Amino acid sequence: MGTYLKLAWRNLWRNRKRTVIAASSVFFAVFLALAMRSMQKGSYDFMIDSSVRISTGYIQVHAKDYWDKRSLDKSMVLDPEVISKISKLPDVTLVIPRFETFTLVSHGNATKVSPIVGINPDKERTILKLQEKLVSGKYLTGSSKGVLIGQGLAELLKVGVGDSIVLYGQGFHAITAAALVPVQGIIKLPIPEMNKTMIYCSLSYAQWLYSAPGRLTSLSIMIDRPNRLDEVRSEVKKFFDDKYEVMTWKEMTPELVQSIEVDSAGGIIMLAILYIVIGFGIFGTIMMMTTERTKEFGILIAVGMKKTKLIMVTTIETIFISLIGVFAGIVISYPILLYFYYHPIKLTGELAEAMLAFGVEPIMPFSIAPGIFIAQFWTVLLIALLSAWYPFRYVHKLKAVEAIRN
Amino acid sequence: MALIELFDLQKTYNEAKIPVYAVKGVNLKIEKGEFTAIVGPSGSGKTTLLNMIGGLDQPTEGKIVVDGTDISTYKPDELINFRLHHIGFVFQAYNLIPVLTAKENVEFIMLLQNLSKSEREERAKELLEAVGLGERMNSRPSELSGGQQQRVAVARSLASHPSFVLADEPTANLDSVTAEALLDLMEDLNSKFEMTFVFSTHDSKVIKRAHRVVTLEDGKIKSDEIRKVIVKNEG
Amino acid sequence: MIFMLAWKNVWRNKKRSLIILTAIALGLGCGLFASGTMYGMWDSTVNAAIDRDLSHIQIHSENFKKENLIGNYIPDGLELKPQIEKMNGVKAVSVRTIIEGMAASATSSSGVEIKGIIPDEEQRVTSVAANIKEGKYFEGLSRNPVVIGRELAKKLDLKLRSKIILSFQGPDGNIIYAAFRIAGIFETESSLFDKSNVFVRQQDLFSLIGSKPIVHEIAVRLTTVQIIDQVVNKLRNKYKDLSVETWQQLAPELSISYETLDFELNIFLGIILFALLFGITNTMLMSVVERMRELGVLMAVGMKRIKVFTLIIFETIMLSITGGIIGMILGALSIWITAQKGINLSLFAQGLSSYGISSHLFPTLPVSYYPVLFIMIIVTAVVSAVYPAIKAVRLNPATAIRMY
C-alpha cells in the first residue's frame, strides 16, 4: 500500500497543472455549495431569532390551555422562588414574566382594539428594547401607572405624552376592566401593524387593572445555546405539574417551523440542482485527465505493471485530488463565510426599503454552523469518489498496444 | 531582384543566459521559379532558417526580403497577414483541419483572405483537380491516405496565390512511392505555374530531385549547388 | 464557414461535449422548473388573496386609510356603486361597512374587523361564501347572523349557532354591544384572515348604530386583471377625493414576498451559472490544449489571432447555447406538464397557510425569463471562453507545430 500511496502522490506532483485543474473543480464545488447552504441556513436562523425575540422567547410557561384560549382565566400565579430557580438553570440567560390581553382603547371619538402587554421594564431592556424606541416621554418603571403606546396608535387617537386614554376590557373572571390612563411615552415600533396598535404598561399596573394581582399569562425563557432547547425544557418542566404547560417556540409557532421546513425543502432542491451541475463538472474533469494519459497507461502496462495496481494508483490519485479540493474548499470558504456571518450583506434598493417598512432588517445573513461544513465535505467528497469510477473502467478496458500507438 | 533575399541573417536563443547561435550569418538569394532543397543534419539551423523565411520566426540580426518587402521588422500580426498573402505552407504531418473536408480545407485559406464563396469554390475545385483529387473533394482527412492528405496540403498551400511554397520535410511521413509521386506533383506545379518551392529534407532521394541544394552546417551555408538553371520565361 | 468550423469542433470530442452539455441542460432545466414552481406558489398566493378579500381594486376615503375609524366613510358611498358597475370591464362591486371591534365569547375575546356586507353582492366579488366549511352563508337564521373564520371559532371556543358578542365604538363615540349568532364558519388559505375577520349583514349594522347607511370600502372585481391600470385611472379621474388602490398597493407584503423570491431565485440562478462557468472553462481549456498544433497551423497559414480568438469564443457559445436551449426546453416542458394538473403540497399545508399560501400550486414562469436567461448563458459562455481563447492566441505557431 505504501508504494501505491507514494506512487500516486508523486504522480500528482509530476503533473501539477492537471492536479490543480482537477482539485480546483472540487474546490469550486465545495465553495459554491457552502456559500449557498450558508445563506439558506443563515436566513432560517435569522427568522427564528427575530421571531423568538419579538414574540415568544425560546420557551414559555403558561397555565394549561392558555396558549389555545388566550383567556385571562387561564392566567397563573408563580412562586417567586421557582422563577429564581429557573433563572439559575444552566443555559438560561433570562426569565421574563408577562401579562398580555386585549383592550378597547379610546380617546375622544376614536376607538381601537389593541393588545396590551404588562412587562417587567428592567428585564425587557435587553429583550423588547422599548427604551431605544422611545420617541417622546419616559420609559416605564416597575411601579409606573402610565402606558407606552405605539406612534401610529398615538396619531390615530390624537394623543400626546401626558394625555389620558380610556382602556376598556374584560379582566380576570370577566370582571370589567376600565380605566383612564395617562400616556407616559410614545414608541416607534418597526412593524406597522404593531406600531398602530401596541400598548405596554408595567406588570403591576396590568395586574391591578385586570383584577389579577400576582398573576401572569406567560413566563418566557431565553437561552444562549438554541441547540440545548429540549434539555432546558425538560429541566424547566420539573418545576411544574400538569396544571401548567411548558412550550418551546417550535410548539408555539408551528407555522414558523413549517414555513422554515417549506423553505428548507426548496433550498435542498436547489442544492441538489447545484450538485448535479458540479457533479458533471468534476466528472468531466476526471474523465479528461484520464483519457489524456492513455499513452502513459499503455506504456506502464506494456512494461509489466498489473492493471489492478494501476487501477489502485489512479483511484488513490483521485482520492488525493478530491481531498485536496475539499480541504482547500473548506479552509478558504470558512474565513469568507465567517466574515459575512459577522458582516451580513446589506440589501439596498426598493426591496430593502419595503422590508424595512415591515420591520424586517434588510440583510442577507450567513450561517457558520459546523453541520453545513460537514455535510458539504461528505457530499462533494462522495461525488468526487463516484467520479473515480471512470478511470477504474478506463484502465480496466485499456488495450496496451493500441494505447501506445495513439 | 530575387524573390527571397537573406542578408547576414542571424538568430540567437538565450538559454540560461548563454547565447546559442542557431543561424550565424546566412546570405542567400532564391529566384522565382526555383525548386530548392535546404538540407543539413539536425542542429544545423535548418528549421530556424526555414521558420524565418516563412515569417514564423524573426531574426536577431540581418534582413529578410521577400518579394521586395523587408519582413524582418514586422510585428506578429503583420507577419500573419504577410504569410496569408505571400507564403504557402506544407507541413511534415499534413496538419489539415480534421473536421473539414478536403475542399473546405483548401477553401479555408481563401476564406481568411475574404474571397467570395463562388471564387473560393471554383479555385478549390481547380486546385484539387490539379493535385489529382478531383474525386475526393468531399472526403474528410481521416478518410484519405497520407499521400492524399499531403496532396490536399499542397493544394491548400497554393490556394492563396502565394509567392512561394515552403515545405518542411514534406515527404517524411510518406513511403518512397508516395513520396516520389508527391515530388512529381510539386515539380509539375513548379514547371507549369513557375511556382517557387523551398523545402527542407533528410531524404537523399528527395535531394536528388531538387534543382538546387543548399547545405547548412553549424548555422552557416556549407555548400550551394545549382543543378538546373531556370529558364526565365519573360512575358 | 467559421461558424461551421466552430460547430464541427464542438463535436470532435463527443463524450466531453455531451458531459458539459448535460450539465448545462440539467442545471438550467431543473433550475427553471424549481423557479417555475416557486413563482407558481407566489401566483396562487396572490390569486388566493385576491379571491379571499382583496379583489382587484378597492376604494376608500383618504382618511380611512390613515385612521380606519367608523367616521371615515365614503360620502354617498352607496350611490357610487351603480356608477362603477356600469363601467367597462367591471364584473362586480361590493360595498362594505368596516368597523374595528372586539369579538367575545363567554370564555375569551379577540380583536377583529367587522365587515358589514350585502351577502349576494360580496359573493360575486370574493370567495367567502365558497369557503364556508360548516353551516351556511347567512342562511338559516333570521336575526343577526354572522359568518366567522375557523381560527376565531377555535380561539373563542365557538360552534355553529353559538352566540358571539361584537363590541365596537359607534359614530357618536359610545361603545355598542351586540349579540350575533354564527350562521357559517369559513376556512381559507390564510389562518390570519380566518382569525381576524367576521362578516355580518350591512342592514344589521346600520340598525345597531342607528345611522343612515354608510360604507367605508368599495371592492371592485374586474372581468380580467389585464385592464386593471385603465380602470384604476378612470376611477381616479372620476373620484378625485377618494383613494383608489390596486391589490398590489393594498397588500405590499405580497409584492415584498415577490421581490424577495425574485431576489433569491436570481442568486440561485447566478450560483448555477457560476458553477457552469467553471465547468465550461475547464472543458474548453482541455479542448484548446488538445488542439495546440492545429491552432498553431491555422496561425502559421495566416489566420489572424483575433479570428482564432473568435473561433474559440464561437465554439464555447455554441456548446453552451446548445445545452442552454435543451435546458430551457426541458424546463419549459416540465413546467407546462405540471401546470396542467398542478402540484399538491398539502404535506406542508400548515406552514403554508400561515403565509396565506395555497397548497395547490401551478408552476409558471414569465415568458420574459427565457430571453434573459438566454443572454445570461451567452455572457457566461463568453466569460468562460476568455481564458482558453487567450491561451490559444498566445501560442507561437512555429513552436506549436513542432512541440504538440
Number of DSSP helices of chain C?
16
Largest sheet of chain C: 6 strands, mixed, barrel
What share of the residues of chain C does DSSP label as strand, in percent?
15-25%
Structural class of the secondary structure composition of chain B?
A: alpha/beta
Strand content of chain B: 25-35%
Give the distance, in angstroms, between the N- and C-terminal Cα atoms of chain B: 16 Å
> How many helices of chain B in DSSP terms?
7
Beta strand count of chain B: 10
> What is the number of E strands of chain C?
12
Order of H and E elements of chain B: EEEHEEHEHHHEHEHEE
- Radius of gyration over C-alpha positions of chain B, nearest whole angstrom: 18 Å
The multimeric state of the shown protein is heterotrimer
Overall outline of chain C = elongated
Sheet with the most strands: spatial strand order of chain C? 2-3-8-5-7-6
Topology of helices and strands:
The complex is a heterotrimer of chains A (406), B (235) and C (404).
Chain A: H1 2-14, H2 16-56, E1 59-63, H3 66-69, E2 76-77, H4 80-87, E3 92-107, E4 110-119, H5 130-133, E5 134-137, E6 147-150, H6 151-157, E7 164-170, E8 176-187, H7 192-195, E9 199-202, H8 203-209, E10 215-216, E11 218-223, H9 229-237, E12 244-248, H10 249-252, H11 254-292, H12 294-302, H13 307-342, E13 345-346, H14 349-357, E14 363-364, H15 370-387, H16 389-397, H17 400-405
Parallel strand pairs in A: 4-9, 6-8
Antiparallel strand pairs in A: 1-11, 1-12, 2-10, 3-4, 3-7, 3-11, 5-8, 6-9, 7-8, 13-14
Helix pairs in contact in A: 1-13, 2-11, 2-13, 2-15, 11-15, 13-15, 13-16
Chain B: E1 4-15, E2 18-30, E3 35-39, H1 46-53, E4 61-66, E5 69-70, H2 76-86, E6 87-90, H3 102-112, H4 117-130, H5 146-159, E7 164-168, H6 176-193, E8 196-201, H7 204-209, E9 212-217, E10 220-226
Parallel strand pairs in B: 3-8, 3-9, 6-7, 7-8
Antiparallel strand pairs in B: 1-2, 1-4, 4-5, 9-10
Chain C: H1 2-10, H2 14-54, E1 57-61, H3 62-67, H4 77-85, E2 90-104, E3 109-117, H5 119-125, E4 132-135, E5 145-149, H6 150-155, E6 163-169, E7 175-186, H7 191-196, E8 197-201, H8 202-209, E9 217-222, H9 228-238, E10 242-246, H10 247-250, H11 252-290, H12 292-300, H13 305-341, E11 343-344, H14 349-354, E12 360-361, H15 369-393, H16 397-403
Parallel strand pairs in C: 3-8, 5-7
Antiparallel strand pairs in C: 1-9, 1-10, 2-3, 2-6, 2-9, 4-7, 5-8, 6-7, 11-12
Helix pairs in contact in C: 1-13, 2-11, 2-13, 11-15, 12-16, 13-15
